[in-house]
Amino acid sequence: MKLALAQIDARLGDFDGICSRVERQLHVAHDAGADLLCLPAPLLCGVTPGALVESGDFEHDMLKSFHRISKVAEELGIACLMPAVLSLEAGQLFEVFLLRGGRVVPLRLTMVRHGESMPVSPWSPPVFEVSGTRIAVTFDVARDMGAIPNGCDLVLYCAVNGFDVTNEQTAGVAAVPGGAFRSEVERAGVWLACMEPVGGFDDAVYTGGSFVMDDGGRVVAQAPCFEEALLIQDVRRGMMVDALEMHEVPSFRRDRWLWEALRLHLRDAVEANGSRRVLVPLRGDLPSSLLAALAVDALGSRNVLGLLVGHEDALTAADEALETERAACAREVASSLHMRLVERTAPSSALLADSDRPARVSPSLRAGIDALLVADTSRELAAMPLAPLTKTDYALRANAIAAAPAGALSPFGDVYLSGFEWLAKTRACASGTMPGRLVGFDAVKSAYAEVIRDAIAQLGVDDALGQRACRLLQTVDPAVLDATLEAHVDRNADIDDLPLSGVSPEASALLLMLVRQNERGRRMLPPAPIVSARGFAERLWPMQLAWSDMGLRGEERLHAADLADAEFHRLERKGSERTEQARGEILGMLGEMLGLTPEQQAELMSDEGQERMREEMREMEGDLRELFRRMAEADGGPSAPGGPDVGMGPHAGFTFFSVN
Q1: Strand, coil or helix: what is 510?
Q2: Is the pTM of this model over 0.70?
Q3: How far is CA 260 from its chain centroid?
């Protein structure tokens, strides 16, 4: 059997466009002799469609497109496999539709219908046959690999989890050199085909890199990463085929994969927004400069506009020098990236605030002024605004920057600020267009200092306490601060288990308090692609929450399960005590009837007495059995020829036992 994996990208819900692309893929696969064409899982409706799949009209249009594709597949004599999400009473189901012979068959639902006499889980891998090859389809290879039915030749894995920079198994074939998939395939003794999507789908992003692995755990074919492709491979179980050398398989490199994944998502998000170009606010710092480089890589320099906002609120010579340096750096970045730079000057915030005397501008006021200028410029130039915000911004100072322009996107919203050092170095290695002062730890430290100042300023505490809080956080390495945020936000770790808690418990508690207090502001910030174990879009806490994690303070952790176990054991002991009491009363009554002394009754009720009684009962039972056997041999032997039969009736010598 020859398998074809169509690693293609399309806009969600564009059924006409998807049908046209799939039909072209069917013709190419047919010309190459393929028997089955498989499509990516999120192609039609994504992997988290929410209430969309509950729309009957959406399901109708989707199935209508399936019937259109099935006619083309029937004419070509090829089968087609199209995953999709369906709505069920209990939730949503990852279904896989087999288009063959002009029919559209939902494999999982059909399997459940056939298994009504013997219930089958709708999550079990469906199995079908194409050209003599038995194929099992799974959306979770780690869970289902050990449950694949006997006789299957190929496991078709339709990946649904988006790229997670902390989990290299989400990087397609690049995860194989690290040991992914190989041991599972060797144990199962079947071929594995991984259908890895490519591109951005809503909040998720996929890196491509589909591959086929033989039953010995060797990669025999692979599709390129970060681009569309059609992978075709013969599946011959039990036969040796040529395999790729391990050096031919790409290895997962965290920073490069992260950069390329964000580039793909930005490209698809801008296209889905109906825009052709974007507007990047340039601030002369690392995040905005790196965002401009990402936009140029995704869309080309002609489609990226930079906006430099000048401020007239400098109060000291140092402020003026800083403003001049910031503007010079922004102009240098725009020039090196060959992008157009638009410069505008923000009005005095003192005038806007109707203040009689000059004062240092609050972060939220400056953010609001900048957001207004970005929104006005983006409308004027018909460009989609981008926000140079990081996950550190979302965590610590969301309330201060919540005035982001409408319709904006934050490509780095799920990337911590400390990781920008390596992203900048990765980008600089590919193209030396980043200014040298923005590539290194000093640029990260400078940007982090601004985040901390804004985070503490939004608390509204007095100057002395605010300065103390700033010093507390600024003395900690940014990498440690972000590692603490990552443990708390992404992995839901408790305060005692955070990296910073062992060094500075006060700083750790302050970080968690800032994360909690910025919950309201995060709801108003632009969306961001999820490239971590858990983004803030998935991590929602109550906005009115007053509780902060302060640790156990030396106390033993309480668990509701322990309380349930304690209550169960209490009821169990209470039942045993009542049983013992009832037994004692019964034995006491028997003792009085038999005339036993209190000492004899106590001996009878003891554990030794109970065991001795049971032993005596077993001996008496054995004696009775032996007695019955001897009586049967004496009175119930074989009768004389022609005589009456002797049995266990009332005349067999067992007068009492046989009659009663």
Answers
A1: helix
A2: yes
A3: 19
